[in-house]
Amino acid sequence: MNAIDPVDDKQANVSEQRVSVIVGDRLCVHCGYNLTGQNIYREPHYDLLIARCPECGSVASVLEYPVLGRWANRWAALIAALWVLVLLVIWLGTSGALFGLSMATGAEGARNEFRTYIEDSYKQWEAQQGGVTALNTAPGAVNTTFATAGGTVIMLPPGTPPQISAFINRGSRFAKFTTWWSLQDKVTLVQGAGGVRAVIDPRAFLMWVPLSMVAFILGCFWGIALLRRRRLGLLIWVGVIMATAGVYALIPTLIWLYEEPSYPWSAAERIVAPPLLVLSLAYAVVPLSIGVLVGRPLARRLIHTLLPPKLRSSLSLLWTTDGYDPPRV
Amino acid sequence: MTIAHVCFGCARDLAGVRAVRDPHYALSLVICPGCGKTYVRQTHPFHTRWIASLRIGTAITALIFQNAVAVTLIFSTLAVIAGAFVLGYAAMNGELTPQAMINLGVSLAAVSIVTGAWLTAGLSHISRWRAWLGWMLLVVLLVGLSAAVSLAALAGRVPDLVSWIVGTSVITVAACVPLGIIMVLALAGIPLGKLILSAHRAFVRGRFRWRRRRRALGATLL
Asked: In chain B, pLDDT over 90 holds for what percent of residues?
């Protein structure tokens, strides 16, 4: 574009009149050199104010439009705030997704045989203990017969709807299961069921396939979104995401710790899910870390493959941010 | 609407005056037709950033479109390959129906032609053999991956490693037959791809000419 050879101030045309000096930062439009400290001349051809780049010799006009108003900066601030908000939501979403898939692994982890084993053990105990039975004394009411050896029978007044007696019977069963559960030694229970391998269903680990895919894709997103972060910064961010997922995981863990289960299915889940949840979260770190580290190179490769050169140059930030030359047009 | 550019000499708005490239400094100059004063036409930073954002938006849209087409074609190809397996199984059991064959044939032809057209028009910037070979390798890889996952899920427990590897390999190799047919038929999509490519180029050229004419018209009117 510019046919003028690189020159310095000494080579400037003698008829150019020195007017002033650039005191602020002003980059050369051709080579990006900072023109601060360069002289401003009144050139003789058009009577324009110009400065010369000492690096490439390009002439830069110093006449320009004033910014029309403050709206440019306001819009920029608004867009930046929106971007931060979006990143915040995606951060919480990423942790939530990883927690959810890890939780699903834990929930699917108990074998049906283990659940049946717990139920059978409980039924044996229940048969020995007896229970609370609500008998409806209403004329014509049909009462289910329970094993009540050593148990309690509550006589409900006549006219009580049958749903009430059914509700009391069911409630007492849940309460009894909770009592039985609190008496159990969990390690003995697992050993009685045949050990850890007999308790955990390996099919639950199939959930690691979607977990890996989701973690990798989200990792790629973060690798691209956090453009200014280097590898260490990205890995620290992985730690932040996983810490948030760990905070999410505290909610079911606390429930498991402080609330006794009321039926065999939840009891089996209570034994199997916590270690699987922790294991799955620990595993999620691997695809997430790979994703954040390869996200940018993968995006560059994808852009290189799928976009024609003209469109690639618009996304050159992905190259320049890692110190590479922008893609050639 | 262009941004106002008022002449300091005679206050005439130079927004519609076309800039000329000056021979001395290679600057875009606007010479006031009223008083003859010269100004440098510079783009407003707001406008520059807006144009840059539009360009990034266009590039991202194109990337999403290309990805969407690629993903759709991958799933369609995998579905056709799975359909071919199902049909082969039905043929072995003597349950093959003409309608099923017609359905598979139509799907296979459609997927092939669209694949050929997309590999020609959508990936015109990379050499043809790289695009086609890369596409085939990608599909084979995905077939192998889905076969491995499906076998593990069907086994009901962690499968025996040897039978798992053998099963995955057999399915992957067998998938190469319908994939080969798709790629051969995809050659028929090349003319369609070339047609799309020339239509797109003609559209872009036409738009460029129209913009230039409009700009020239605007300058003449002022």
From this structure: 41
